[in-house]
């Protein structure tokens, strides 16, 4: 039986990943310090004897006595509302924390998959974004703690690959949504759903013409696992290429929630990317992966979950 370590496993994507790995009959060790994750996200997983949990901040070295075959590295706050609140923790986790996890991968001879992000492309000048694009990032703005930590992370992994003979996987995740997103994390999906369900104004930032491309979490997790199992060790975009403006997205959520909410335009945050859409040709070619869940179906599932919480 394969033993798989998931850092950030009590977070939104990490908890879905742990669940899927357990369903596949893997042994899962989940590590989290709950800076943005929640025990409720993994509560049901404790019923599975193949699941164990270690409360630990990866910014401190990790000691694991068991064998480890694979490491999914997801530990990092990811929401723009966290960037001005905990920028030093984000940079420390993305640098010293990642180095600690890489050292564990070297010690255990484990394959490691690191979750990078579409934010490495910054406010992209190329559209849609291919893995070959180097990005357009403001290195000193409020988002830079996250964007630059992830760019540093990719550089660190490539250095470990060249010098320490590790077998890495690097995924650039694009906007992902679904059940278990933190209702108060400020990201557009939980914010709009919460507002719509309460018939409160929907806070569209700027004129709402900026675009995003939203991937349902189950599709994202399938992509992460496909990449881990592949033999491709350079960055791969995993996201859903269907692009939508934020204003259209707000209207869709109002409709799906049968809500009476009105749109309330608010100032656009600084360095907010204008357009974002993954080019997923590489994922299709190397992994045979592409998303299956439509935005409407994924949103219905997400809205149902928010209604119950
Ligand atoms: P999340 O905040 O829900 O999950 C991150 C988890 O990591 C949390 O449980 C948090 O407590 C934990 N964590 C953070 N710092 C830690 C530390 N120092 N030690 C131990 N645990 C720590 O976020 P998410 O949306 O699930 O994102 C997971 C990963 O995917 C992150 O690396 C993120 O950068 C990446 N990503 C997510 C998206 C998205 O749309 N959700 C997009 C691009 C990249
Ligand atoms: N956004 C918005 N209203 C909100 C929250 C976000 O209009 O209440 C916009 C935000 O400005 C951005 C998009 O929605 O253009 C996606 O934001 P999110 O924070 O979810 O993720 P990002 O892609 O910016 O990391």
Show the helix and strand layout.
Blueprint: E1 3-7, H1 12-23, E2 27-32, E3 51-55, E4 70-73, H2 87-108, E5 111-117, H3 144-164, E6 168-173, E7 176-177, H4 188-197, E8 202-205, E9 211-213, E10 215-216, H5 217-229, E11 236-238, E12 243-245, H6 246-256, E13 263-266, H7 281-287, H8 295-308
Parallel strand pairs: 1-2, 1-4, 2-3, 4-5, 5-6, 6-11, 7-10, 8-13
Antiparallel strand pairs: 9-12
Helix pairs in contact: 1-5, 2-3
Uridine-5'-diphosphate (UDP) binds at residues 80, 175, 187-188, 191, 203-205, 210, 212, 246, 269, 272.
Question: Could you give a quick summary of the protein structure above?
Answer:
The model has no long low-confidence stretch (mean pLDDT 97).
Characteristics:
alpha/beta; Rossmann fold; seven-stranded parallel β-sheet; two-stranded parallel sheet; globular
Describe this structure in words.
With 309 residues, this protein is an alpha/beta fold. The chain has one domain (3-176, 215-241, 276-292): NAD(P)-binding Rossmann-like Domain (Rossmann fold, 3-Layer(aba) Sandwich), CATH 3.40.50. Helices cover 36% and strands 17% of the residues. The protein contains eight helices and 13 strands. It has helices spanning 12-23, 87-108, 144-164, 188-197, 217-229, 246-256, 281-287, 295-308, and strands at residues 3-7, 27-32, 51-55, 70-73, 111-117, 168-173, 176-177, 202-205, 211-213, 215-216, 236-238, 243-245, 263-266. The chain has a seven-stranded parallel sheet with strand order 3-2-1-4-5-6-11, sandwiched between helices. A two-stranded parallel sheet has the order 7-10. A two-stranded parallel sheet has the order 8-13. The longest helix is centred in the N-terminal third of the chain and has 22 residues, at 87-108. The two termini are 35 Å apart. The mean pLDDT is 97. It binds nicotinamide-adenine-dinucleotide and uridine-5'-diphosphate (UDP).
């Amino acid at each position: 039986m394969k033993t798989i370590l998931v850092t950030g496993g009590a977070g939104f994507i990490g908890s879905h990943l742990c669940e899927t790995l357990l369903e596949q009959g893997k042994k899962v060790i989940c590590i989290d310090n709950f800076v943005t994750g929640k025990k409720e996200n993994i509560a049901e997983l404790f019923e599975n004897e193949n699941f164990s949990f270690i409360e630990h901040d990866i910014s401190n070295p990790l000691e694991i006595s068991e064998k480890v075959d694979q490491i999914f590295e997801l530990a990092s706050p990811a929401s723009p509302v966290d960037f001005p609140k905990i920028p030093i923790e984000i940079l420390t986790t993305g640098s010293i924390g990642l180095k600690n996890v890489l050292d564990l991968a070297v010690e255990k001879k484990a394959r490691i998959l690191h979750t990078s992000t579409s934010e490495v492309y910054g406010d992209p000048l190329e559209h849609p974004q291919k893995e070959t694009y180097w990005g357009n990032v403001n290195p000193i703005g409020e988002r830079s703690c996250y964007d630059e930590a992830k760019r540093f992370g990719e550089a660190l992994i490539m250095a470990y690959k060249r010098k320490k003979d590790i077998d890495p996987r690097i995924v650039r995740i694009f906007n992902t949504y679904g059940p278990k997103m933190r209702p108060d994390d400020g990201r557009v999906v939980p914010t709009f759903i919460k507002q719509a369900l309460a018939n409160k104004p929907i806070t569209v930032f700027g004129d709402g013409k900026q675009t995003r491309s939203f991937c349902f979490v189950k599709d994202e997790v399938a992509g992460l696992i496909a990449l881990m199992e592949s033999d491709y060790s350079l960055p791969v975009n995993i996201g859903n290429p269907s692009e939508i403006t934020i204003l259209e997205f707000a209207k869709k959520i109002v409709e799906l929630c049968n809500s009476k909410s009105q749109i309330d335009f608010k100032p656009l945050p600084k360095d907010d990317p204008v357009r974002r859409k993954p080019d997923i040709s590489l994922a299709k070619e190397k992994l045979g992966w592409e998303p299956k869940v439509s935005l409407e179906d994924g949103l219905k599932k997400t809205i149902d979950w928010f209604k119950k919480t």
